[in-house]
Amino acid sequence: MTGVTLAEELLLLAYDDETGKATMPRISLDLGMAAAVLVELALANRVAYADGNLAVTDPTPTGEPVIDQVLAKIAADTPHTPSSWVQRLRHGLRDRILGDLCERGVVRDVDETELGFIHVHRYPATNGFVEADIRRRLATALTGGQLPDERTAALATLVAVVRMEPALGLTGEAVADARRRLAEIATNAGFSGTVSLADSVVRPSISLVVSALAQAVNAALGKPKA
Question: Which of 38, 69, 79, 187 could form an SS bridge with 192, CB 3.0 to 4.6 Å?
Answer without folding.
Answer: 187
